[in-house]
Design a protein that fits this description.
binds nickel (II) ion; alpha+beta; 2 helices; about 160 residues; globular; three-stranded antiparallel sheet; about 20% helix
């Protein structure tokens, strides 16, 4: 595994749309490993590949305090959303800020794992927040574009 440099807010790549992964190779798995290492290093709870400069539809998320339950999503697609919640979130690509954002309370998502196997996941609460935040990254959208309120130096978990 290797720690990768994070792309931050001034970088135009963060506004670009990521392309689907066509074939899952050793390189894809290496990339997922690097994304996890980079996310954990920065105490994040989620990371999209674009945040380390790769425009592919790959996400990693781990909302546990222990940081021992990583979830990997390749080519994630939303099946459905339900309800809404509003909460403070941050982003590793936007240091020192946080924003209050309205997100679905429940999102059902379909994706591939690193073995190329499809799975569906019911994401609720904080996991739904993290997932939807990361899904936005794949479409070049930052939470600052959706926040109903912003503040500096938030102490919330960063995604
Ligand atoms: Ni983010």
């Amino acid at each position: 595994m290797a720690l990768r440099s994070l792309r931050v807010v001034q970088d135009d790549i963060l506004h670009k749309v990521s392309r689907p992964v066509v074939q899952i190779t050793d390189k894809t798995c290496q990339l997922l490993d690097d994304m996890l290492e980079t996310m954990y290093h920065h105490n994040g709870v989620g990371l999209a590949a674009v945040q380390i400069g790769v425009l592919r539809r790959l996400l990693v998320i781990d909302i546990t305090e222990e940081g021992d339950s990583p979830i990997e999503f390749i080519n994630p697609e939303v099946i459905s959303h339900k309800g809404s919640q509003t909460g403070w979130e941050g982003c590793l690509s936007i240091p020192g800020k946080s924003g209050n954002v309205v997100r679905p309370n429940i999102t059902i998502v379909r994706a591939l794992n690193r073995h190329g196997e499809p799975f569906e996941m019911h994401c609720e609460g904080q996991l739904a927040v993290a997932l939807n935040h990361e899904l936005d990254h794949l479409d070049g959208v930052l939470y600052t574009q959706k926040a109903i309120e912003m503040r500096q130096q938030g102490d919330e978990d960063e995604e």
